[in-house]
Structure formats: structure tokens, C-alpha cells
Amino acid sequence: MKKRKTSNPEIDFNNLQNSFKTQLSRAEQESEDNNKLERNKLLQELQIHQIELEMQNDELRHANEELEIQRIKFTGIYELAPVGYFILNQSGIIEEVNTAGSVLLEFDKSIIVKRSFQSFIAKDYTGTFCRFFKEIKSQNERKSCQLELITQHKKTLFAQVEGIAIHGMHTNRVDCYIALIDITERKEAVQRLEVTKERLELALEASEAGTWEYDYKTGKILLDESNYHICGIDKYKYKGEYHHFLNAVHSADRFAVDNYFRTCINQEKEINIEFSINKSGKPCVVSMRGHHIKGSDENQRLVGTIMNISEKRRLENEADKFKIEEQRNITTAIINTEETERKRISDSLHDGVCQLLYGIKLNLQQLNGADFKEGPLNNIKSLLELSIKETRNISFELAPSILNDFGLTITIEELGRRLSTDKLAIQTSVKGLNKRLDLSVEISVFRMVQELINNAIKHSEATLIKVEVRKMKGLEIVVVDDGIGFDQTSKRIAIKGMGLSNLKTKVAIYDGLIAINSSLGKGTCVKILLNKLTD
Fold first, then answer.
1. How far apart are CA 123 and CA 139, in angstroms?
2. Is the pLDDT of residue 491 over 60?
3. What are phi and psi of 289, to 5 degrees?
4. Which of 20, 88, 188, 220 has a Cα-to-Cα distance from 99 of 20 to 30 A?
């Protein structure tokens, strides 16, 4: 049996200690390596996180800058907007107001803020505002209404109000955003339009007028109820076609109305025309007026009125007739007065001056046996005879007594005989006057003939004057001379030189016409036609 080898405890301990140190050193080395790896990994993560934070910080900075820009824009829009903006809390107290809002209410912002919006509303509209404010708080949508506001200077302001409520996401706060648009002028315009429309309807009803409209797109003329009655058109048969409307126009005016209407449509002119229409066989005159309403080509229209002016035209005709008759009566009265005065002067000449001249002539005849020279006495006799003749002629021209006794034919013949001289022949001819006319008519005809002859003697330098009076349906007077004539284009000569003003006045009394035909060197012909042979 082998002897067991015994170990040395000291050596084993040293070995064990060395082994432990080796393992511990190895363990520490591994731990240090692991810690270094962990530290590197953590450092990398921290660097990555830092980079992410820097990127987020940049994004936040950009977002903040953009938000500031938007805030500045919103503030500018809010303050400079032409519409009044108000921010109210849920109790209706004004929290914010822009410049336009303070201008509308004529108050400073400091006075408006913290006041109830309802305090600026007219009493009659407080109920409207309460309903509006309740609705925008309870319903998440925009609402609108119209309110009457009272400004600082007690002026009335009508406003269109738009509002919406904004609810806080994390709070129970409710802000109401209110926009005010001043519609005072529009409201007043609408009121004036309503009054005007009512007055127009009353005027159209009182004046027997109706409205019409022409549509460029369809080419139809649309009428209202009044026009169906005015134009005598069956509304159940009328389809609005242009030719249907034209058929209602009287045949005598249809062509002219058609041309006028087409011209106004093509040239976009206003319509103002009067014409007759067919209405149950009765004459009816209407006035049609219209103007263009310009919009887009598809919506261009002509609108206007049609008015029954038959009664107006009748009254105008009667007024014209009355005016003419009144003028005729005045002129007749003037002429009669002139004739009365002429007769008075004529009688004075005939019964006074002529008798005195006859007396002087008779006394001179008794002096034939006296001791006077025959030469001077004969000269005095000749002068007296000439004076008596001239006095008789003047008396005849003023008021020919022969006209009263023998009529117009003999008087005109006597006028021609008296005014004829060695250098001027006056030929007269009267036809158709088998019966005498009224004395006033005969006097007027005589004065017309007398005036024409005197004009010819004064201005024409004629050697022959022909006078012809013919009684037909009316009465025609023709006076022709072979004188120097005149230029008819010169109105001054025709009126002033020929003295035709009084003649035209006399002719107008009898609804007469006067025509003058003259040229230089070829004489003058004057024709007068009297249609109404009564005074």
C-alpha cells in the first residue's frame, strides 16, 4: 500500500488566492468592458434623442413664427375690416370689438367693452336679439337676423347680424362671434321702393296703364292683366309671340309700329310711340314706352308701360278746338271792332269832309261872274274835285257802303276800277256767288282781296293784277301779278316785305290755307282757300 501524499496547506492557499485574483481580475475586466459598451450605447441614444429634440424645437419655433404671422394677419383683418366684429361671452357681454364696430355705434372701444350688447338694441328688436342669441348658443351653426341699433347720438342704424358660438375644447367657456353689416341705406332704399311701387300701381290703375316686357332670348312680349284689357287681347289665346301683339295694332299703324319697334330693339333705343289698336271696333289710342335693362346677353330685356290715352287725346283735341275757337272769336272781335271804327271814320269823311268840299265847290261856281282870273279859279276847282275823289276813295277803302247794299261781287269790281291807273290794270272776276254770304264773311273776303292788291301795288312794280274769287265747296281767292317777284327762301322778305301776318290771321279764322308762289322776275301768285264760311 502506497503512502498517501499529503498536501501543503500554504501552497494550496496561495494557489487558490492566485486563481481567485486571476478570476476577479478577469471579471473586473469583463465588467469594465460591459460598462463601457453600455455607456457608449446610452451616449448614442442620448445623442439621437438630442437631435430629435432639436428638430422638434425647430418645428415648434417655425410653428410659433407662423402662428404669430397668422395672429398679426387676423388682428389686421379684424381691426381693419369694414364690418363690425364683436366677441360676446355667454351672458351677452361684449369682450372685444373692432374699429368698424365702434364706428358703427359711435362709441369708443373702452365704453363698448364690458357692456351688454343688448343695451345698444332698439326696444322693439330686443326680442329678436334674444331669440337669435339663444339659437347660436344652443345650435352649432351660423345664424342671422336684422336688428335696429341706437348709436351714441340717438341715430337709428339697421344692421344685418351674423353670429356663431365657439365652445372651448377643455373648458365650458362659450364665446359668441358677432358680425354687423350696416344695411341702413339698403333698408331705406327698399322702403322707398315699396312706396314707389305702391304709388306706381295706384298710378297705373288710375291712368289705365299696364306693364310689358320684351325678352331678347325668346323674342316674346309679355303683358300684365291691365294690358290685356287695354289692348283688347284675350289672355287665354295670347301666347306672347311678337306677331300676336302686332295683330292687335290697327292696320293703319301696323307697318310703322313694326319698323319702329324693330329699330329700337336692334339699336337698343328707348321706346316712345303712340298708335291706335283694334279694340272691339272702337277707336283706342295707346302710348307705349320702354327702356332697356342691361345684364348678360341672356338676360337682356325691354320693359315699359302701355297706357290708354284715348280720353287724353280726345280732351287735347277738344282743348285745341276750344283754343282755336277762342282765338277765332278774339280775332273776329278785333276785326269787327276795326270795321266799326273804319265805318265811323268813313261816315265822317263822307258826311262831313265831302259835304264841306261840295259846299266849297258850289260857292266857287257862284263866283264865275266875279272879277277873278279864270286860271286860278279853275285850278281851285280841279283841286277840289281831286280832293273829293280821294276822300271818296278813302271812304270806300275804309268801309265801302256798296258792300252792304250790293254785295261782294260789285264791291270787288268797284275796288279794281278805283285802284286801276294808266300804268296799272286790275282785272277782277267773281264766280259762283249767286247768293250772298254772311256780311262778316264778305267783309273779310273784301279785306283779303284789298290787302293782296295793295301789297302788289306797293312791292311788285306790276302792270297787270288779276283777281279771281270762286265759290266752290269753300271759297278760293287767287291774286296774280306780273311784277318783279321775290325770293321765297328769304322769310324776312316774305313776311315783313309783303305784310302777310294780318292776312294769315284772317285766313286762320275760316280754317283756311294760304299758298304763295313767286320767283325773281316772274311775278307772284297768292292762293287762299277758306273752308269754313261762317264767322
1. 25
2. no
3. -130, 150
4. 188
Q: Distance between CA atoms of 115 and 102, rounded to whole angstroms?
A: 13
Closest CA to 271 of 251, 236, 245: 245
Q: Does domain 207-308 have CATH number 3.30.450.20?
A: yes
In one-letter notation, the amino acid at residue 229 is H
What span, in angstroms and rounded, lies between the C-alpha atoms of 484 and 500? 18
Tell me: pLDDT of 152 over 80. yes
> Which of the listed CATH numbers 3.30.565.10, 3.30.450.20, 3.30.1050.10, 3.30.479.10 matches domain 403-535?
3.30.565.10
Fold of 81-188: Beta-Lactamase (3.30.450)
Q: How far is residue 477's CA from residue 466's CA, in Å, rounded to a whole number?
A: 11
Strand partners, 425: 464
The CB-based long-range contact list for 275-282 (8 Å cut-off, 24+ gap) reads: 275/249, 275/250, 276/249, 276/250, 276/252, 277/231, 277/232, 277/248, 277/249, 277/250, 278/232, 278/247, 278/248, 278/249, 278/250, 278/251, 279/231, 279/232, 280/232
- CB count in 10 Å sphere of residue 436: 12
Q: Which residue has the cell 306790276?
A: 462
pTM: 0.40
Residue type, 324: I
